[in-house]
What does this fold into?
Amino acid sequence: MCFGRRARCIGYKLLILALLSIVANILLYFPNGETRFASEHHLGKYVECLHGILGGGLMVLIPAAVLIGLHNDDCCGCYGHEDCGKGCAMLSSALAAFVGILGSGYCIIISALGLSHGPYCFTHLERNWIYPFTQSSGGYLFEYNKWSACQEPQNVVQWNVTLFSILLVLGGLEFILCFIQIINGILGGLCGLCCSHEETYVC
It folds into this structure.
């Protein structure tokens, strides 16, 4: 079993997920594709937490970069045999994956809170910018007839629900991959990368 090749496969997957997370979080700042709401500070508090940019993005890019670059780390072998692998590099990858666990966990928590709390919008009923769905504890997600309560930004409920849901899924996938890499890194560090140069691993 080649722990290093598996780690690099996980690294490439984390790279893609982190970039998607950053894009999704940036889109949250421009509801319905408009920029004026961000400049006027009419965005929800959970939109401004940067959970997709910092948590699911930059903090996950750290383990992604470490895992992808594992083949450059000729650190130490398996029980003194250099050809068997790079044990301490794998252990360091487990630490990097723990950073990814923290980042993806943050992304999951904020995304869940954003979905539960609902968007910040202008309603004709209150004539003000409020959180009209705060008391529903996420129940508004299944009450589509109430979404029209938000007049501005247009379609902000659909926009927020879609992007927060995407970030929730992306964060969950990142969390799972980082958890797998922690186990993979510990096993690889203890045993070394005991695979030959001819061994192939399908990503």
Observations:
- The longest helix spans residues 156-191.
- The two ends are 13 Å apart (CA to CA).
